[in-house]
Amino acid sequence: MNEAPPDHGPPLRVAVVGSSFGGRVHVPALQAAGFEVVALVGRDAARTRERATHLGIANACTSLADALVLGVDAITVSTPPDSHVDLVLEAIEAGTHVLCEKPFALNAHDGNCMYIAARDRGIVHCTSFEFRWSPLDATIGRFVAAGGIGDIKLATFLQISSLVAGGLHPAFNDEWWFDARRGGGILNAAAPHNIDRFRTWVGEIDAVSARLDVTGPRVASPDAAEDAYTATFRMRSGATALMQHCAAAWGEPTFAFKLVGTTGTITLGRETASLGRGPGDNQNLEIPDDLVLPDIYIPQGDPKHAFTFMELPPFVRLAQRFAEAIRHGDPEWSPPGSPPTPTFADALATQRVVDAIRLSSRENAAWVDVQPLSATGA
């Protein structure tokens, strides 16, 4: 599959920083969207060269500086969270456009530094909220924006799984995933996507009451990353929202996102989205043709690719929007009818909610105000 728009001149040149998730998802998505991936950056020279060769990338680098001298238009960052700020600021200083993975940063202070630097330098900045283009998510977003369920009064997200119940899943990096100091844990791994759903569908989050927990067979310590969280949100719209996720529970998995409005209720599951408007009413939402994602090859049989089928197709759309934003010189540019392109402003707003969740948990679930994004980004 090649989703590149026609007649846009030579391909944009991009370097992918991070050879694991970057190699599995960023590289094929960027290639499908019409980018020329000219370099793969990783810490281990031999491993990075092997992966670059497998992916058809000419240059394998062990530093971002080595990739930048190749004359790239953009980079994508898919490294551990504690490395994001230095890499992003280095690219911005070089005048290079940036797409950064979530979690955006270790904290909102670092996120704010990246956002202000990109904004003030005129850099196109994008963050990896690719599920905005998941067909079900995009359909719900369009339906809600059109007033399909009236005013949303209650929003709930619940996910229970055994993802890390027996140790770390092979798709994750065991070097840092359970280390809170480096940005590990299920809050950073999963909550940004769901916070983005709340912000996109319901509005801004004003205050948080939350708890983080270690529920799996690990010894809790100050450096142990959580495998479960529960957060209640006060939404600016007046709605109440609940987000709960445990990734260390054996048994039947649960995934559900519900939006309760004044004229209907939407339920998002793993494979369907449904609408209820009365007793016993439960009709599937039809996905509009323009929100259907094209097929793309997904490797089979490799546990590291266990989630690629969910991640890669919408990431192609994200990569397309990143390219279009670069060509238009506007990080917020998106075509009519498309979900809005997620920028560093969205990443920072989400990071501030994550910070508030952590502070609330440290203070025994006390209510904590979420700091708004001011006009200056401070």
Automatic annotation (TrEMBL):
Pfam families: GFO_IDH_MocA, GFO_IDH_MocA_C3. Keywords: Oxidoreductase. InterPro entries: Gfo/Idh/MocA-like_OxRdtase_N, Gfo/Idh/MocA_oxidrdct_glycsds, GFO_IDH_MocA-like_dom, NAD(P)-bd_dom_sf. Residues 12-123 form the Gfo/Idh/MocA-like oxidoreductase N-terminal domain. GO terms for molecular function: nucleotide binding; oxidoreductase activity. Signal peptide: none annotated. Residues 141-266 form the GFO/IDH/MocA-like oxidoreductase domain. The keyword Aminoacyl-tRNA synthetase does not apply. Transmembrane segments: none annotated. This is Unannotated protein. It comes from freshwater metagenome. The lineage of its organism: unclassified sequences, metagenomes, ecological metagenomes.
